[in-house]
TrEMBL record:
One Pfam family here: Pro_CA
Cofactor(s) the protein requires to work: Zn(2+)
Chain residues that bind Zn(2+): C42, D44, H94, C97
UniProt catalytic activity: hydrogencarbonate + H(+) = CO2 + H2O
Free-text cofactor note: Binds 1 zinc ion per subunit.
Enzyme superclass (EC): lyase
Protein name: carbonic anhydrase
Molecular-function GO term, any one: carbonate dehydratase activity
EC number: 4.2.1.1
InterPro entries, sorted: Carbonic_anhydrase, Carbonic_anhydrase_sf
Alphabetical UniProt keywords: Lyase, Metal-binding, Zinc
């Protein structure tokens, strides 16, 4: 993009937004914010607010980093969850996540893991011996999956130290997921499964820090995947709920989602959109 076009877009499109917005819209929140949702998502440019289909202003406190990692932005999250007291913490990963794939490449090359609390220690680069030995060995009667072969090609050592440091903590959840890839047998689903495993781990971390608020029913932690490749269904662009407060059994997840919707008195249970919501729970509260 030329710099001129950047200025053009910025000035012209923002002016349109400013003109169509009423002053009363701004005065409602000009001196405070009261978002009900904190969303932690990946910095990936393919994820933007409109995928949720909502006007997000003053509704969503957004924190973003590579791989939607809870430990990377503890301060911002603590502010949103304990000062602004948002009732929902939504951790949103996505399909074909570069950070997840990068961490998978590092795991397969057997690069030393960095724990969340140890990220000041130096990063150990991949050695030639490690590269040759191939790190984690995936053994299967049907041979190595195509996904694993492709992930082995990720050149982790080419990344800067700063990038490595930020991504390496992801090897912890990714190593959990990687051993199961051979059983799935579909490349799109296999990569999505790694993102899903990462979201499960991030929900687990969030429960470590904010589990008390969940027990007191002040907070619900929801994990999800934005699927723009059609890994969960043939419909691309769907956001799929994969975890609620650490629950990841598909049937229990759907049951929980139904209970939450039924208990909400602000939803008109006789409406067509509620019937649609119940149908979509079966399709979009799901797992690989
Ligand atoms: Zn990503």
């Amino acid at each position: 993009m030329e710099l001129g076009h950047f200025f053009y877009d910025l000035l012209v499109h923002n002016e349109k937004f400013s003109e169509k917005s009423k002053d009363t819209q701004f005065s409602a929140y000009e001196d405070h914010q009261c978002p009900p949702i904190t969303m932690l998502t990946c910095a990936d440019s393919r994820i933007q607010g409109q995928i949720l289909g909502m006007d997000l202003i003053n509704k969503v406190f957004t924190v973003r980093n590579a791989g939607n990692q809870v430990a990377r932005n503890k301060g911002s999250l603590a502010y949103a969850l304990t000062v602004l007291n948002t009732q929902i913490f939504f951790i949103l990963g996505h399909t074909n996540c570069g950070a997840v794939n990068f961490a998978a490449g590092a795991s397969l090359a057997n690069v030393r893991k960095l724990g969340d609390t140890k990220d000041t220690s130096p990063v150990t680069p991949v050695t030639e011996t490690q590269k040759k030995s191939g790190g984690i060995q995936i053994v299967s009667t049907i041979g190595e999956s195509k996904t694993i072969s492709n992930l082995r090609k990720v050149d982790f050592s080419a990344a800067s130290r700063e990038v490595q440091r930020e991504i390496l903590p992801l090897t912890i959840p990714i190593e959990r997921g990687i051993a199961r890839l051979v059983k799935i047998g579909d490349e799109k689903k296999e990569l999505a499964y790694l993102s899903q495993t990462n979201v499960d781990y991030q929900v687990e971390k969030a429960l470590e820090y904010y589990g008390d608020r969940v027990k007191e029913k002040k907070l619900a932690i929801v994990g999800g995947i934005y699927d723009f490749v059609g890994a969960y269904s043939n419909t691309r662009g769907r956001v799929v709920v994969t975890n609620i407060n650490g629950v990841y059994d598909k049937m229990k997840l759907q049951e929980n989602a139904r209970v939450f919707c039924e208990a909400d008195t602000t939803i008109d249970k006789s409406s067509e959109s509620y019937k649609l919501c119940c149908k979509l729970i079966e399709e979009k509260v799901s797992r690989i």
